[in-house]
From TrEMBL:
Gene3D superfamilies with a match to the protein in the record: Bacterial extracellular solute-binding protein, family 7
GO terms of biological process kind: transmembrane transport
Protein location: Periplasm
A Gene Ontology cellular-component term: periplasmic space
Source superkingdom: Bacteria
Name this polypeptide is given: Lactate-binding periplasmic protein
Keywords for the protein's UniProt record, in alphabetical order: Periplasm, Signal
Species this chain originates from: Actibacterium lipolyticum
InterPro entries: DctP_fam (IPR018389), TRAP_DctP_sf (IPR038404)
UniProt signal peptide: 1-21
Length: 341
């Protein structure tokens, strides 16, 4: 609690300073991100695309300066830093903040689910356009989501071949979030909570045998150096990041600039999905070459049969209860997250 209070006090003080500076140069906005500038992945590349487009579409009148690599706020500090005005723009890893934004974490309660990257992005985009509760949940923390960055469709990257559920028995699988622990248990494996940054070593040292991930991220984190089997388990795309703004910064923009930001958010999803698909295809080509990763098909029916598991259904019911309590038509919303009968 002391640490949280210290962060809040620090961010508020910095935010006040940022506000004073902003009065003298209101045309320059600050983007705070955990991504390293030289990462070269779809997230970093399209962040730079968005920044360049913002300058171009405002005729050079406005620009965004990016503070890369957690130099202003670390991953778990970004929502609070944005809310305090330390930054104007930033990317928020939604699943890291389940208590702050339970409604906006909807997809994380429904794994496996049938949607890919672009579909998940449009799904969340539509929720924000249709139901005010999703925007209000963020507004309560002085945040505004102008765009969305889903992750790629996931399978399992493993250190040993997995051809069916029978091969999952006794394996240790990296777990996080809401649905994965119960899904992994239903598959007959043991969930192990490990941070993304620690997973390479965990795979290398056999602390875990598998991790849910997609090809592009597996290459980005170099997990495919130590785990050589990619299992095509159709887990669906996870919802990853909000492209967020400090709500006051957004409200203080003129209507024309707000329109540029909102349209950029919609266009960003299209560009990001395109770049991510190209990246994933490139990685799959590398896997068939020098990287030597074997891609294994998984019997889809075996996965679908698990959805009725009591643990998996319990997680889904948890989100439905939260949504109903907020006055949302949960049963209608979750149709998109369910496999067709």
């Amino acid at each position: 609690m002391k640490h949280t209070h210290f962060l809040r006090t620090t961010f508020l003080a910095l935010g006040a300073c940022a506000g004073l500076a902003g009065e003298a140069a209101a045309e320059t906005y600050k983007w705070i991100t955990f991504k390293p500038q030289g990462a070269g992945d779809a997230q970093a590349v399209t962040t730079q695309w968005l920044v360049d487009e913002f300058a171009a579409r405002t005729g050079g009148e406005h620009k965004i300066e990016v503070f890369w690599g957690g130099s202003v706020a670390k991953t778990r500090e970004i929502p609070e830093a944005l809310a305090a005005g330390v930054g104007d723009f930033g990317d928020v890893i939604t699943p890291y903040f389940p208590d702050m934004m339970p409604l906006n974490n909807a997809v994380g309660f429904f794994i496996p689910q049938p949607m890919g990257t672009a579909e998940v992005g449009h799904f969340i985009e539509n929720l924000h356009a249709t139901y005010p509760e999703f925007k209000q949940e963020l507004a309560d923390h002085n945040l505004y989501a102008f765009g969305f960055r889903p992750l790629e469709a996931y399978g399992l990257l493993c250190t040993k071949p997995v051809n069916s559920l029978a091969d999952m028995a006794g394996l240790r699988v990296r777990s996080y979030g809401f649905a994965y622990p119960k899904l992994i248990e239903a598959m007959g494996a043991t969930p192990v909570s490990i941070a993304t940054s620690e997973t390479y070593e965990a795979l290398q040292r056999s602390i875990v045998d598998c991790t849910p991930i997609g090809p592009a991220l597996a290459r980005g984190w170099k997990y495919d150096e130590v785990a050589k089997y990619y299992i095509e388990v159709p887990l669906g795309a996870s919802f990853g990041h909000l492209l967020a703004m400090n709500l006051d910064s957004y409200n203080n923009m003129d209507a024309e600039t707000q329109a540029v930001v909102d349209q950029l958010g919609r266009d960003y999803l299209v560009e990001y999905a395109r770049v991510l698909d190209e990246d994933a295809a490139r990685v799959r080509d590398l896997w068939t070459g020098d990287l030597g990763v074997e891609v294994i098909d998984f019997p889809v029916a075996e996965l679908y049969d698990l959805i009725d598991d009591a643990g998996i259904q319990g997680v889904r019911a948890e989100w439905i209860e939260k949504a109903n309590a907020a006055g949302l038509p949960a049963d209608e919303i979750v149709k998109s997250l369910s496999f067709a009968e």
